[in-house]
Amino acid sequence: MLAKRKALDLSPTPLLPDGFYVPSSRWVHPSIRLRELLATEPFVFAPGVFDPFGAELAMYHGAAAVYFSGYSFAIGHLGSTDMDLYNSVEIADGARRTVSALRKFQLTQAVGDPDHGVAPRHLEIPPLLVDMDTGYGNAFNVMRTAELYVSAGIAAAHLEDQVMPKRCGHIGGKALVPAAEFVGKLRMARAVADDLGNPDFVIVARTDALSAVDAPESTRGMDLAIERTLRYLDSGVPDLVWCEFSTAERGPLETYVTAVTKRFPRALFAFNYSSSFKRFADAHPLSFAELGEMGCRFIFITLAAQHAMGYGFTQLLAAMEQTNEQAYHDLQRAEWAADGDVPTKSHHLFSGVPYHHLIGKRFGGARFGNEFETVERGKVV
Prior knowledge:
Elements: E1 10-11, E2 22-23, H1 30-40, E3 44-49, H2 52-60, E4 66-68, H3 70-78, H4 88-111, E5 128-131, H5 139-151, E6 156-160, H6 179-195, E7 202-207, H7 221-234, E8 240-243, H8 250-263, E9 269-272, H9 288-293, E10 296-301, H10 304-323, H11 325-335, H12 347-351, H13 353-362
Parallel strand pairs: 3-4, 3-10, 4-5, 5-6, 6-7, 7-8, 9-10
Antiparallel strand pairs: 1-2
Helix pairs in contact: 2-4, 4-5, 4-13, 5-6, 7-8, 10-11
């Protein structure tokens, strides 16, 4: 679900020129904003991204929240798969830079481009939920990782019960740590957030029990997934629970939700609308509205940005093999079509050149101001 376009309470900030404003929600902690969304919306949809650029696009198009995907991060930053090949500091820094970028993007969009008639655009900053994998070690690794995440201004994180090295929930061979050990990790994450003054930090407990091949318990499959989820909720820590499913069928989800809500009627669920399944081929694919009614209040597509970028760039490169520069001309023609709203068509505007000139001149930076801009014939601005 994209954020509802509504009248916003606007406020000035020292980081904008006089007469320009940002939504007052800028100063509401992202964890509080996410909790408000979860409590008031039928569901919250978060597209999966792996860098600030993708998050900014999601923000521009009104995403209520953004999901910073571990698998996407592995592909986007290492060119590799989701098998614990990056560490906590790497993904925490990527998420930190993304939070910072969204705050900056709000400022640049609030200016628009006065010299070219582009009106200010007032965008709310979507809260970021970030993949914490297994916590990258034991409870003390979770302590360090949670500190990095909370201090970065992240709204929420999910933690999973796999052993290290973990693997994507849709790759075979998963094994689980003892449930008691995982509960300790959840409690540690909550303790860190509380200690850092953010009791609203949202924690999602994920179990991979449904398809795990190795676990301390004798039960397997759905029985184990339900048993573990109930144990995690018994701890009082998770705000949402998430079971990773091995198919796109609705039956297993319904079985799981029914069993969990029998013990915990107010339980909320996170749901991975995974790119691993060809949902377009399902006769009756699950809709976001249906998921929301089932209690799946946080819905995300982990690899949304990666697949979209892969498809779009592939289309361009394949066309250029046939028509060379004409294929790029076609791309620009589509970008600049009068009926389109493609914010990246002007890389200068999207990256905030007008803002930097205005605010840079205000603070005495050298060679800032529109008098240093040149307008060249045919130049894309």
